[in-house]
Amino acid sequence: MLSILRSLVQEVNSARDLKEAMEIIVSRVQKAMTTEVCSVYLLDPATNRYILMATEGLYKDSVGKVSLAYSEGLVGLVGAREEPINLEDAPSHPRYRYFPETGEERFRSFLGVPIIHHRRVLGVLVVQQRESSRCFDEGEEAFLVTVSAQLAGVIAHSEATGAISGLSLTGEETKDISFSGVPGAPGVAIGTGMVVYPSADLDVVPEKPTENIEQELELFRSAVQAVREDIERVANRLASQLRPEEQALFDVYLRMLDDEALPGEVAIRIREGVWAQGALKQVVQQYIRHFEMMDDHYLQERVVDIRDLGRRLLSHMQEGEQKHQEYPERTVLVSEELTPAMLGEVPKGQLVGLVSVKGSSNSHVAILARAMGVPTVMGLVDIPVNQLDGRELVVDGFEGQIFASPSADLRAFYQAICEEEDELFRGLEVLRDKPCETTDGHRVALLVNTGLMTDVVRSLSHGAEGIGLYRTEVPFMIKDRFPSEQEQREYYREQLEAFAPNPVTMRTLDIGGDKSLTYFPIEEENPFLGWRGIRVTLDHPEIFLVQVRAMLKASEGLNNLQIMLPMISNISEVEESLHLIYRVYHEVREEGYDIHMPKVGVMVEVPAAVYQIRELAERVDFLSVGSNDLTQYLLAVDRNNPRVAQLYHSYHPAVLQALVRIAQDARSVGKPVGICGELAGDPGGALLLMAMGYDSLSMNAASLPKVKSVIRSIDREWAIQLLEDVLLLDSPHVIKSCVDLALRNAGFGRYLRPGKSSSAAMAEQAVS
Length: 768
Hints:
Layout: H1 2-13, H2 18-33, E1 37-44, E2 49-56, E3 67-69, H3 73-81, E4 85-87, E5 109-117, E6 120-129, H4 138-164, E7 177-180, E8 182-185, E9 188-195, H5 213-238, H6 244-256, H7 262-271, H8 276-292, H9 297-320, E10 331-335, H10 340-345, E11 351-356, H11 364-372, E12 376-378, E13 392-396, E14 401-404, H12 408-428, E15 445-450, H13 453-461, E16 467-471, H14 473-477, H15 485-499, E17 504-507, H16 534-539, H17 541-554, E18 561-565, H18 571-590, E19 599-604, H19 607-610, H20 613-617, E20 622-626, H21 627-635, H22 653-668, E21 673-676, H23 683-692, E22 696-699, H24 704-711, H25 716-726, H26 732-745, H27 756-767
């Protein structure tokens, strides 16, 4: 059964569209279970009805015509209960619903299982049998449940592909198709999708039409001829070294390149209006499906040859493409995995948004996007990347959502947000040089998180009072080797000089988790609970010592350096780190550098550190909470995983209680405590943190003017009362709503980020 299931998933994965995917499912499942009927009913989001999408055994004419209300019939019952229903005599069940057009009156045994993806019921998979004596056994039920679970994601992807194409399950036009991921960089962008992809990878070739059919045919013919010559050249060179049967393998390749074989089918697709690369992809995937289903082992092995041939042809076509890529005036760059190099290809002033299937809010691209002020969404699930090329897209970097083919109403809604944001920042420029102080005189330092020199420029223009977190891993990530001491020293000096005499807090190298170096790979089953942060650098003191030495030398004459240790979970880690720092300090002084011993602090981002604040504070000069990681570890939620993103919430009562405790314990021993993370850059979160007693808030530069404006407009007692009120609540969503309401009542409604509820309501209104 496992081999059948694996083959089925592969076939459905390579289906061209939802219709073909459904037909493959019913055909293969019917054959595997030796049953008379297999059908798929999908739930149409637009009508909330189950539609018969494919069948093997019922009348084909009923496909697309038969539909049931959400809770109607046995299909509706399976969906409503979200569990399998197995009946020997289905017609006798009180929920049985008969459709004459299907011809199902002949069949009595019924087994239906729900198709569920991310808690959403997508449809119901049904098998039926004529004999009432046959009851589908437990093994068959388990197999169908397994099939359903395996195919749920594939069906969701195929469904999304159809929706992106502009059609619902019923064939009606759709707009405002939304996909959710994780926020990469804040802001809203409206532009045209531009899909970029690595070369010679058939799987990521986007679907695009062509208007110049002859040009595409010529491009493909040239590729076929070039590949043919390559193969013949290799065959001739190796002829004396190979036996006849081995030499014959080259003949297989050449026969596949005959006009009546693969090239002929690709040419047909091109003449139908598909661009050459897309046509090649379709035909190769079709060949692969057919060969994988064959019983002959030799023919199954030919899949490798077909895939290789497809890559060779694609590579030649991509070489023949025009080198200069035309980018839309307002480009939203879309890719399976964006790289910094891809961003650099877009002409200056044309890049407005980024969308990446893979990646996280901590990836190098996300950091770069925030520095550039480009709204970004990362980590999208079930998004048909290949369908987004040339489509109008809305990128909501606040909530981690994108909308494809937006309606006029939805576009106007987000356009208004863009204009409001621009107007708001222009109005806040006057606050740049004013202190962040409440109306009753309570002072809070506003700092920035940086990683690149472009961050510094934006930070200074927004009135930052220093750097609360400089991510030293960024210079490591942009190299193909560890940067030398001199190279690091130059990077650090830039940051220190830019903000002198204000403090610059440099976090020692924090790799591991979702931050990796290509030249120093860390392969772990659970990287977030593994070898990361201080654990790596203490195991490799040669890395730690060079970095600290570069920091100290860079601070000469400025003396505004502060060093911060990440991922601390044990007192011994602090003591060992301090020993190494003091050792380097004395060595650098002996070399003749006139430097002061910098303040050293620790990051509180592991739950264990929350309960050791007093012990940690005895050994260091300051504490800084990494609220993003602390929230992640307290809630056991990977914040970069869109599958559980809804469980990650900075306003969770447990998170707020932990933050209160940290601030109280730090104050009790007289040590300053700051915080760097998304919560600090949220106006409501900043108010709560100020009320808790945090001395400094560090955030992205873009968030700074809003936070300063809010804090300067209220008194601390008001914020303390708000904190006391929300600490009595037990739901993160209720807490967030309470804080937002308080801000609106205080006149700061325009500072709140656009909520999902608002955009969802707009989308619903536009469709209705």
